Amino acid sequence: MKLLTKNKLNEIIKNNDIRGFYISPLLDINQIGEISLDLRLGFDFYVSVNTRYSKLSLYDENGVGACFQITKREFGEPFLLFPGQLVVTNTFEYIKLPENILVELNTRSSVNKIGISFNSIVQPGFTGCFPLELYNNSNNVIELIAGMRLVQARIYQLDEKTDYLDRDRKYFCHIKPQISKIISDEDNKRFRKLNK
Amino acid sequence: MNEIDLEIIDIQNLQDILKNIYLTPFFNKNIVKLIDSINADIEKTLTVETDIYYLRNYRDNLFLTISFLRGSINKLIPYEVIFVIEKILESDLKENLKILTKMLGEFNYCIYNDFDIKSLFDINNISEKYIIMGLPENYKDIPLNNIALFHEAGHFIERNYVISNAILLFYTDEVFNILSKLLNIDIFDYFKTNDRKKIAENYLKEFFSDLYGAQFSGKGFIELLKKLKFSDQGNVSYTHPDIDLRINVVEDLLFGKNNDIINIINEGIKITKYNRQLEYHKIEFEKYFIYFENFVPIQIENDFELKKIFEIGWEFLLSDRINEGDFGRLSQKKKFDIINNLVQKSIRDYMIKKQWNSIDEVTD
């Protein structure tokens, strides 16, 4: 597995190959760093809210959805993230990964320092706006801006190809955040039967 | 307390609601100025007006205005679709405009042609034209389902340039002959009415709007009409021509066939100030399909491509390409959802890139 650096990243962005690695759009070439690519915050947010349900249950088909409320911002508009609040959102950039490219996502160092840290892996072959799950770890309300540079993507080239569409994928070609579909996990179905 | 007091209280209550809309953090800054102006007009009206009939009428207009404004600020409107329609109408009307949206609980698309906010209030400092459109809330995230709004935009253009009226004024006999020939039954006889002109005018309005909409949605518009046929159930209507006939007219436009209705409308347009003929501009679909086949948004380069994005989406859905390659591995529902997402993202990227590039340099 090889980490791609600036020259290779520049080449990828320049080619922007719809059959290979594709990004739509990259607003600023300065988003390309020495070993990573900065990605921007999107416009749609599923905000965790208190509900009349006592818990978020993985045994309840409506359990997860009921605990989130959708909201939207325009480009450049502020979005407030309250202490202890979870928000499910995604990147502004829509990215298609080739079947041999893996992405590691982390919040930018500057963002970590104000109290939001996030890390995730994006599988080879994934296509869509990258999902982001943000949590405010600080004691202050943090004002984010829709479209701001929020996360950095480290891009790794694998030795072998994978097949992303070898099964029905829950998260594919989405442009808006998706709330967790953990309830549809096969394991969960078994647990539900066991628990009956 | 008398009836004038009660009307004034009602208007004040509505004004409070208007102010609350204004104060919401999700407010759309584009219409802040409009709300400011309406508020100022309310203050003035409440100070000087004592005529009960005037106040009642004013209250009704304010009530409706609030419902339209509320629909435009809830952050749930399909911005991308509205952006495309604004572009289309702006280029046809040659003036800046803003579309206010009303989300409807029922399956209905409409344009409020008679409701001109600027003329209802004493507002002189707003330069944009405001147009109000309604669409079903259930379809807000399914852009390809919203092509009926192009038909509604057609109604606005037709009304603005008084096209059907002009056609009938100059080509009365020709229109009657064409309609009599095309309709299965003698529609004028059926209604036993002398108001032949009104029926013909209604039909011309619908044909115009269909053709207008089809210019931007292509074969997708035929699919829309087929859907309407199911609910129409072949009833003869005073306002709308037979759906099969409407489909034929649209098909003739898309496939470049000679059609008397299209010809007479285009002849009539020449005598109006609308300086554009209804015609179908073919595009090279292959150039765009390659994006969708690879599951990525189209890089829209200009307004012409922007206006055609819905047609490209529909054309791909209706072509064999939707079943080929990796697309063939997906369920029908997933295919439909993906193309809708890609259409929406293509428009959004174009909007944001334009906005981003319009900022020449960032200065503190």
Distance between the termini of chain B: 57 Å
- The total strand number of chain B stands at 3
Low-confidence stretches of chain A: none
Please tally the β strands of chain A and state the result: 12
Radius of gyration of chain B: 23 Å
Distance between the termini of chain A: 45 Å
| Class by alpha and beta content of chain B | mainly alpha
Average pLDDT of chain B, rounded to a whole number, is: 88
Overview features:
heterodimer; A: 196 residues; mainly beta; Deoxyuridine 5'-Triphosphate Nucleotidohydrolase, Chain A; 5-stranded antiparallel beta sheet; 3 helices; 12 strands; 12% helix; 34% strand; B: 364 residues; mainly alpha; 3-stranded mixed beta sheet; 15 helices; 62% helix
What does this structure look like?
Chain A has 196 residues and is mostly beta strands. Chain A is globular. Chain A has helices spanning 6-15, 109-112, 186-195; strands at 2-3, 22-24, 37-40, 44-48, 68-72, 78-81, 86-96, 101-107, 119-122, 127-135, 142-145, 149-157. Chain A contains three helices and twelve strands; from the N terminus they run βαβββββββαββββα. With 364 residues, chain B is mainly alpha-helical. Chain B has helices spanning 3-23, 32-48, 52-73, 79-93, 117-120, 148-160, 163-182, 187-190, 196-217, 219-232, 243-254, 260-269, 286-293, 303-318, 332-357, and strands spanning 97-104, 110-111, 129-136.
Summarize the structure.
The complex is a heterodimer of chains A (196) and B (364). Chain A contains three helices and twelve strands.
Question: How are the elements arranged and paired?
Answer:
The complex is a heterodimer of chains A (196) and B (364).
Chain A: E1 2-3, H1 6-15, E2 22-24, E3 37-40, E4 44-48, E5 68-72, E6 78-81, E7 86-96, E8 101-107, H2 109-112, E9 119-122, E10 127-135, E11 142-145, E12 149-157, H3 186-195
Antiparallel strand pairs in A: 1-12, 2-7, 3-12, 4-5, 4-7, 6-11, 7-10, 8-9, 8-12
Chain B: H1 3-23, H2 32-48, H3 52-73, H4 79-93, E1 97-104, E2 110-111, H5 117-120, E3 129-136, H6 148-160, H7 163-182, H8 187-190, H9 196-217, H10 219-232, H11 243-254, H12 260-269, H13 286-293, H14 303-318, H15 332-357
Parallel strand pairs in B: 1-3
Antiparallel strand pairs in B: 2-3
